[in-house]
Hints:
transmembrane; cell membrane; transport; mainly alpha; 310 residues
Amino acid sequence: xxxxxxxxxxxMALIMVIVSFTLFAIFESDKLAVAGKVLGPYSNTEQRExxxxxxxxxxxxxxxYITWVGNxxxxxxxxxxxxxxxxxxxxxxxxxxxxxxxxxxxxFMIPLSLTLGVIAxxxxxxxxxxxxxxxxxxxxxxxxFASATFFSAIFVFWLGWLPGxxxxxxxxxxxxxxxPVFVLVMYGFGYTTRMTRASMAExxxxxxxxxxxxxxxxxxxxxxxxxxxxxxxxxxxVIILQLNWLLSGVIVVExxxxxxxxxxxxxxxxxxxxxxxxxxxxxxxxxVAVFSQFISDIGYTLLNPxxxxx
Length: 310
């Protein structure tokens, strides 16, 4: 296990180095363009060259890259052009907001999807299986912007129970966070439910489950002790890999409800051309992607002993 974890960690580090170098080359190889973004389109060449000299852009490319990586590792991502403040002061609060949104989503989605998936997979082809399967497909087929519009029309404009935005200007509010979480759960639980259902149905037809039932072991014990652990291998991988989607893939929900999260920050930076914020957000998104893959691989080997030492 330690060897496997070391290999995965080295692979993760290599990916981060490649991505960071590519990112730096794309955004900062043209020094004058960087100066133009920072100083504005009306700055002249002399002003741009002076700014480059003051900020160390006349150093060799590799030296600038190493310095940039060192600063990023200490949390110094530069100065935001749009927000007129250090990138870290903007990035970490937005990342925390998205972490709250993702945590609440996971809190409700995981037990819901696993319970429904196990119930459907226990009796493949039954009425409960068909109801759960059809419901999962329907909820997953509806995009976030459509469900957000539909539920806003009901809970905000018709019933008047909830606010239409989630800006959290007065601090955390359950009323404001409800709709974004609800929309994400309605969209995301269906895929995990179907994966759990398929995995559970496959496990229930295996020989060791039939043998356990024929031996007279109580059905509940067969499910809880023998079937459930093997059925959770595939859903576990899917759930962990959703972390990357929750970080930058919820832009639609964050923009729709004016929620100040990581995805909205990345979108605003891309539209404004705030290159230092884009670089920081990209690095964080890639790190979460490779780290979630690392956790997925390690967790998969723990759940499946047959590949523990491969």
